[in-house]
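Have a close read of the entry that follows and walk me through the local backbone shapes. See right below:
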Amino acid sequence: GSRSASKDAQIIAQRKKAKAMSVAMSPGRQIAMNGFMMYMSGKNLNIFSISICSMAILSPLKGIFGISKTFKPFEDPSVDLQMAKLIHIALNLAWLCIGLYKMATMRLLPTTSADWAGAVVWKELMESSSIPP
């Protein structure tokens, strides 16, 4: 009767929550694989290392912005997805930070003052002298 129906609903809710947590942890497995690939690609600039770095930047961003689509199959009033979504976002942010660190070690990010030298406005000298300042 109704007792077994509510028990079935509880079991389905528990399974949905477990599956949602499994999906939330999936970026963790990808972090390990991509971290190894980034380590093996070295610090040299070549097409392989650039493609690995771009994948390490774009994949977490797609994961974060597509979180509602990712967890859509598990939405149910009886299933709390807040913790699973937070874990998913945290792991994707960690993956993004690893990708940004790799890009910084390859000198692809503007992290030194020399990278911004083109933005420096030089004053026009009105006169010049042979005496050093």
Q: What stands out?
A: The helical segments are 2-41, 47-65, 67-70, 82-105. The chain has a mean pLDDT of 89. The chain has four helices and no strands.
